[in-house]
Amino acid sequence: MPVSTTPQGAPLWQRRTTRAQWLQYAAWLLGISLFLLCWKVISDNTMWVFVEDAGRQGSDLISRMMPPRWEYASVLWKPMWDTLNIATLGTVLGIAMAFPVAFLAARNTTPHPLVRSLALTVIVSSRSINSLIWAMLLVTILGPGVLAGIIAIALRSIGFVGKLLYEAIEEIHPTPVEAISATGASRLQVMNYGVLPQVMPAFAGISVYRWDINIRESTVLGLVGAGGIGLQLNASINSLAWNQVSVIFVMIFATVLVSEWVSARVRHAII
Amino acid sequence: MSGVDTLARQQGARQGYWRRLPLIDNPRVRWGLVLGGVVYLVLALASVEVNWARVAEGSGRALNFLGAFLQPDFVSRQNDIMAGLLESLTMTLTSTVIGVLLAIPVGLGAARNISPLPIYTVCRAIIAVSRTFQEIIIAILFVVMFGFGPFAGMLTLAFATIGFMAKLLAEDIEDLDWRQVEAVRATGASWWQTMNHAIQPQVMPRLIGLSMYRLDINFRESSVIGIVGAGGIGATLNTSLSRYEYGTSAAILLIIIAIVLMSEYASSYVRRWTQ
Amino acid sequence: MLTLTGVGKRYPTGDRALTDIELSLPKGQVMALIGPSGAGKSTLIRCVNRLVEPTQGSIRLEDAELTTLSGNRLRQARRSMGMIFQEYALVDRLTVMENVLSGQLGYVGFWRSFLRRYPQEAVAEAFRLLERVGLPHAIDKRADALSGGQRQRVGIARALLQSPKLLLVDEPTASLDPKTSRQIMRLIRELCAERELAAIINIHDVALAKQFADRIVGLRAGEIVFDGKPCELTSEILTTIYGEEDWDTSPESAESDDVQTVGDTFTSQPYAAHTQRPLASVASGGAL
Q1: B231: closest CA among B134, B133, B142?
Q2: Are residues A198 and A155 in the same domain?
Q3: Does the beta-carbon distance from C95 to B21 stay under 8 Å?
Q4: For the purposes of burial, counting CB atoms within 10 Å of the CB of A182, is it exposed (0-12), middle (13-18) or buried (19 or more)?
Q5: Is residue B22 domain-resident?
Q6: Contact (CB<8Å) B10/C116
Q7: Do C110 and A189 touch (CB under 8 A)?
Q8: Label partner for B89 (CA 20 to 30 A): which of A4, B205, C43, C253?
């Protein structure tokens, strides 16, 4: 179709047909105007004087951060331990809840379509809401502290682990499941023998991956009062102690690098 | 299966005794790991301080909040919600566009097979920094630098987008089909022509898919960076929570969930369309 | 023993897979079900153990009506019908022993099976079956470490551990080389004779069907078009089942001998000596 003939009779090749070409122009035009419109909204809400000042502010910030107050690090060990616990316990709790939800949400293991849509709703709600928002809610309910952080991380992890796991369940080979059902196995036995062994590697990989992400997320939960190193970060920022903030940043950076390395090693070992 | 006496196991099985082989051969390592896990769990749980009186007091509030989900209040703070939502959506869109555009050069630079070592190192460093720090930390710094409002939020999200997209793009380029590139080079194509004809067609569908996914993430993130003053629906949510206006909070959360659902649906559609 | 009356299956898409199947299988009879792809062979045997729900008719196994069972009664009925699959359908990440023991799942409770604490006699029987099919050394291997023929033997052991009255066999040889195919068919045949099992075997290979079955049923487009002894299966009947083809010129025997020598090199594995021992005894036991 894209080959047409010029008035002189020579064949002319175009990548797309004329109509497709026009549609594409229209899409680009629409996209660019939408972008400009959005840009306008943002720029209307921005105090440009502050933005022009940004370079000076930035260099000022760096100069205040620069000799980091290393002795502050000694105060940070306990919050760091708390952060690690929030991430780890939260992941464990989240996985424990995500596991049954995933089985209820997978098309091939769900007992009933209604249960499936309920499980999918749980997964979507958990995924849509950032762990910081969960933490904010839980802090107003449970009060500030590590517990709110753990539950926030757990609630956010349900959706992540649940989604990836139910997708893995839907991708298993159906024949072993069929074979196990044919032996007269009960529903739970079919899950245990036919489904579980097939999704176990994926499950382990997903869990470790989520743990890695949770380490990152738990470093900031303290900003809303949910425990961990974020509390110190918040306090330091509020008291404008930027040379302590830089110490905290270095700590966070190091922790995240280590957790990423651990997670990569473990996932490599599993797969 | 070293160290396992297969004949003895067969002999046992003949008599009807058979147990699955343990996952880890060495019993010391096995029990060491179990013990380590238990000790960690005990220590970790012991260090969780729970103020049960406060929790009991909060349970009433939890019930109120659950009740609010059944009767979300969209109306009484309608204007705040609309303004916050508009800000969030505009931030999401602009930051994704800018972030993806900037991520392309960084991603090309971070692919070991097409870029020289100094550029590679710099680009990898950008990616590492952007991925390590949570959006909210970046937002704090940008708010200090650029002042309160959606501009700082947009820059935050764009910065986070760069790290995310560039890393995946670089990985894609690193394991793309090199024969196609060579075939195009063999025709005498220049560097730009090679990019355009050999690399772009291979990574484009995934790039579009990832951009859609990132759009989704950026919207979700835009709902939190408002907490530190970087604009968006997060600020509205934060205010409503601190005022204990749970009806409004519930309404905002429901809106967020609905928009994420819609964008997920839309992005799956777009992905099918581009592939 | 097994009686199908007026069995029909229509898929929700509207495709008719089976129409009015009348079939009766006495104890100990090995029946081969032949027919072109899509004729409904797989659907038919899956209707018997209800992996596929028949939409019409009745299926009786020793006076028990199978089509109306549900829950525990269905489990009990299923465990008396062992099934053997084309792609072996083993659970790759479980050990050979666990795969065989899964044949007991219809008999034991959930926690017992979850903790792998099977009754002693079940484990001993599982091991006897593995010895019988020539794989006693493989008990602790993972199923995906075995070759195709070995996996099919594990599948057979699993089906037999159910102490079935009936074997449902779905294309047992479709993924195997010609030599292993014959060994597997011979093994199934012999086990049926030992335990007086009836069997329905779906099979593509007409030569194998003729050689190893007592009775052949031809299925075409969901209907039975032939039911008789292997010797009655003439070229005309093959044409009604499969459609027009010059059946007589295909030198089946010569061809299969040819391939058999090739198959020898395929199956020369470290455990070849073990796997062939029980089969050699069958071969010397005379024609079946």
Answers
A1: B142
A2: yes
A3: yes
A4: buried
A5: no
A6: no
A7: yes
A8: B205
Q: CA dihedral defined by A36, A41, A47, A52, rounded to 10 degrees?
A: -10
Nearest-Cα distance to chain A for C69, in Å, is: 12
Structure-token match 């009348």, residue found: C22
Alpha carbon distance B138, B152 (integer Å): 9
Percent of chain B predicted with pLDDT > 90: 1
Same domain, A109 and A28: no
Instruction: Give the span between the Cα atoms of C237 and C242, in whole angstroms.
Output: 9
Distance from A63 to chain C by nearest Cα, in Å? 58
Provide the token pair at C16.
């008719």
Range of the domain at B118: 73-274
The answer to whether residues A31 and A159 belong to one domain is no
Q: What pLDDT was estimated at residue C273?
A: 39
**A149, A253: one domain:** yes
B188 vs C171, which has greater pLDDT? C171
Q: Which residue has the tokens 């176990």?
A: A200
Count the residues in chain C: 288
Q: Which of A58, A129, A216 minimises the CB distance to B256?
A: A129
Q: Which CATH number do you get for residue A134?
A: 1.10.3720.10
- Choose from C96, C98, C140 for mutation: most chain B CBs within 10 A: C140
Name the domain count of chain B: 1
Residues B176-206 pLDDT 10s: 777 777 787 778 777 778 777 777 777 777 7
Q: Which residue has the tokens 């199947």?
A: C21
What class, spelled out in words, does domain C2-284 have in CATH? alpha beta
pTM (global) more than 0.95: no
Give the domain range for residue A100.
75-270
Round to whole Å and give the CA distance between A25 and B16: 74
Contact between C127 and B14 using a beta-carbon 8 Å cutoff:
yes
Residue B262 lies in a domain: yes
Name which of B149, B223, B244 is nearest A133 (Cβ-Cβ). Answer: B223
CATH number of residue B222's parent domain: 1.10.3720.10
Q: Which of residues 138-157 of C touch B (CB under 8 A)?
A: 139-140
8 Å CB contact between A195 and A169: yes
Residues of chain B by 3-state class (helix, strand, coil), percent to 5 = 80, 0, 20
Asked if A94 and A228 sit in the same domain, the reply is yes
Query: How many angstroms separate the CA atoms of A244 and A232, rounded?
Result: 9
Residues A163 and A116 in one domain: yes
Letter string b/e over residues C68-97, b meaning 16 or more CB atoms within 10 A of that residue's CB? ebeeeebbebbbbbbbbbbbbbbbbbbbbb
**A31 and A86 fall within a common domain:** no
Contact (Cβ atoms closer than 8 angstroms) between residue C135 and residue C275: yes
Rounded-to-integer distance, Cα A93 and Cα A90, Å = 5
- Cβ separation A41–B86 shorter than 8 A: yes
| Residue B237 belongs to some domain of the structure | yes
A112: CB partners within 8 A, 6+ apart = none
Q: Does B6 touch chain C (CB under 8 A)?
A: yes
Domain count, chain A: 2
Given an 8 Å threshold on Cβ–Cβ distance, is B45 in contact with A89? yes
Q: Give the per-residue pLDDT at C257.
A: 43
Q: What is the mean pLDDT of residues C271-286?
A: 38
Q: What is the DSSP string of A232-243?
A: HHHHHHHTT-HH
Residue B185 within any structural domain of the chain: yes
- Does the CB of A6 have a partner CB in chain C at under 8 Å? no
Q: Does C95 touch chain B (CB under 8 A)?
A: yes
Annotate A154-214 with three-state secondary structure: HHHHHHHHHHHHHHHHHCCCHHHHHHHHHCCCCHHHHHHHHHHHHHHHHHHHHHHHHHHHH
Tell me the per-residue pLDDT of B49-99, one tens digit each, with 9 for 90 and over: 777 777 787 777 788 778 877 777 777 777 888 888 888 888 888 888 888
Q: What is this model's ipTM?
A: 0.79
Instruction: Flag whether pLDDT at B134 surpasses 70.
Output: yes
State mean pLDDT over C235-241: 84
